Amino acid sequence: MQQIIPAPLVGSIAATLMLLNILFWVPILLLFSLIKLVLPFQAVRLGIDPILLRIAEAWIAGNSGWMRLTQPMRWQVSGIDDLARQQWYLVVCNHQSWVDILVLQHVLNRRIPLLKFFLKKELIWVPIMGLAWWALEFPFMRRRSEAYLQQHPEERGKDAATTRAACEKYALIPTSVMNFLEGTRCSPAKQKRQQSPYLHLLKPKAGGITLALDAMGEKFGAVLDITIVYPGGTPNFWQFLQGRVPQVSVLARTLPVPVAQPLPGQTSEQALRLTCQQWVNQLWQEKDAKIDLLIKQTIAH
Question: Least C-beta-crowded within 10 Å: which of 139, 191, 226, 265?
Answer without folding.
Answer: 265
